[in-house]
Amino acid sequence: MSDLAINEYFPESSQLVYGCMGLGGGWNPNGYEAKDVKQAQEIIETCLAKGINTFDLADIYTFGKAESVVGEVLKQQPSLRNKMIIQSKVGIKLTPTHDVKSYDLSPVWIKSALEASLKRLQVEQLDVLFLHRPDPLMDLDDTAEMLTNLQKQGKFKHLAVSNMHAAQIAWIQSAIDFPIIANQIEMSLAHADFVEESITTNMKEGCNSGFPRGTLEFCEQQSVQLQAWGCLAQGMYSGNLPDNPSQAQLATEKLLKQMSNRYSSNPNAILLSWLMKHPIGIQPVIGSTNIDRIIQCTHANKVELSREDWYLLFETARGQEVP
Ligand SMILES: NC(=O)c1ccc[n+]([C@@H]2O[C@H](COP(=O)([O-])OP(=O)(O)OC[C@H]3O[C@@H](n4cnc5c(N)ncnc54)[C@H](OP(=O)(O)O)[C@@H]3O)[C@@H](O)[C@H]2O)c1
After folding, report:
1. Distance of alpha carbon 264 from its chain centroid, rounded?
2. Residue 21, class by beta-carbon neighbours within 10 Å (0-12 exposed, 13-18 middle, 19+ buried)?
C-alpha cells in the first residue's frame, strides 16, 4: 500500500491525517503555555518525518488553542508551512462559558470564524475549509454566496464538509461552483455503521444504522474523499479499554494483539489498516498526542490485511457473524 493518498483534488495529501484536537493544553479556559507549543512542534515534526503531511483542526478545538499553538510553531518555523496541508473547520459555536452549544453556518459566522482561525494559525489561506456540522437553520443561497466570496478572496483553497450524508452534500454542492472535496465522519472498527448499512439491506438491524444509506456510494461517485475521525476508537482496543468492557471488546483487543504478531505490526496500525483496506480509500484522522502511538500508526501503510482477517476483525468487534 502506498504512502500517497487517494484524494483526487489533493493528490499530495498523505493517507494518514494528523488530528490536532488534543493540542493546546486541554479544554479549559486557561491560555496555552510554552510547553503546549513545544508539544505541537514535536508532533508536527514527527508527523512530517514519518510521511504525514495533512493536519486537521477546527476553530473550537481546545477553544481555539489548538490552532494557536500550531500558529506559534509556524511563526517560529515559517518554512514548515509549505510542507503542511492545513485543514480547519467552522460551524460549531462553543466557548468555555457557553450557555447553548449550537451550530452556525450563516454567512456572518462563517466569515468571522474563518478569519479568526486564519489569525490564530498565522496563515493567509486554509488548504481545506470544512463545514463542521450541518446547521438546520442555514440559508443555502446566502451561505453559498459567502463561501464563494471567501474562496475568491483566497481565504481557503478547497471546501469540504463533515458529519453530512449524501443528500446534504448534494444540496450544498448544487449552490456552489467549486467542488466539495471531502466528508469527515466517524468511522472505525468500533463505529462501523458505514459497513453495517451496506450488509443489512432489508433487515431491521440496518434501519438502526447511524450511517445513511448511499452516502459511501455518493462520495465515491462524486470524488468526495472520506476522512475517518475517531479512527483509533479512542484506544478502546489498544490499551484504553472501558471500565466494564464487553465480551466483543475484550475479544477484539485479544485478536488485535494476535494479528500484530502475525503481521509483525502493532494494534493501532492493524486497526487503521482495517479502515484503509476499504476500496473507497479512507483517510484516517489520528488524534493521539503520544509520539510513540503516532509512530505506531504510521506502520499501517505496511500492513495488507487478508480478506479473511478483515472479516474476522469486523465480526469480532460486531460480536456476531455477518448475516
Ligand atoms: N469532524 C468531527 O466532527 C470530528 C470529531 C472528533 C474528532 N475529529 C478529528 O479527528 C481526530 C481524531 O479523533 P479522536 O481523538 O476522537 O479519535 P482517536 O484518534 O480515535 O482517539 C484519540 C484519543 O484516544 C486516545 N488513545 C488512542 N489510543 C490509545 C491507547 N492505546 N491508549 C490510551 N489512549 C489512547 C488518545 O490519547 P493519547 O493522546 O494519550 O494518545 C486520544 O485522546 C481529532 O483530533 C480531530 O482532528 C473530528
Report:
1. 27
2. middle
Question: pTM value?
Answer: 0.96
Which is the closest atom of ligand 1 to the Cα of 238? Answer: 31
What pLDDT, on a 0 to 100 scale, did the predictor assign at position 4? 42
Q: What is the rounded distance in angstroms from the CA atom of residue 216 to the CA atom of residue 194?
A: 7
pLDDT class of 6 with cuts at 50, 70, 90:
low
Beta carbons within 10 angstroms of residue 38's beta carbon: 13
Lookup: cell for 51: 510521511
Q: Cα–Cα distance between 238 and 270 in angstroms, integer?
A: 10
The rounded Å distance from CA 239 to ligand 1 centre is: 13
Burial 272-306 (b: 16+ CB within 10 A, else e): bbbbbbeeeebbbbbbbbeeebbbbbbbbbebebe
Ligand 1 centroid–CA 235 distance in Å is 8
For a substitution probing ligand 1, which of 23, 288, 294 has the most ligand atoms within 8 Å of its CB? 288
pLDDT digits (tens, 9 = 90+) for 209-263: 788 889 999 999 999 999 999 999 999 999 999 999 999 999 999 999 999 999 9
What's the mean pLDDT in 113-141? 98
Across the chain, mean pLDDT equals: 94
What residues are in contact with ligand 1 under a 6 Å CB criterion? 19-22, 56, 162-163, 184, 229-235, 238-240, 285-290, 293
Record the cell numbers describing residue 99, joined without a space.
450557555
| Tens digit of each residue's pLDDT (9 = 90 or more) over 68-89 | 999 999 999 999 999 999 999 9
Distance between CA atoms of 101 and 93, rounded to whole angstroms?
6
CB 187 within 8 A of CB 228: yes
